[in-house]
Task: structure prediction
Amino acid sequence: MGSLMSKIRDDYDGYKHLCETIGIDSKEMSEMFEHEVEILNLLGFKSRYEYYEHLRKIEQRDNKIDSIIE
Result:
């Protein structure tokens, strides 16, 4: 089982990836949880996982549309 610090680092990496995906600047580790909640609320999501699930569904839909068009 990993340590708490490893979990926090993993969460921070996920937060930074979210910020890069959206195209905004990330904040320091001490501010990440509040900032992530703020970002997700603005986008209309409750969690980072819900946001990525939404992106996955969009990609699936686009692939389906592309396969019909071709």
Summary: The radius of gyration is 15 Å. The CA atoms of residues 37 and 48 lie 9 Å apart. Residues 4-69 form one domain.
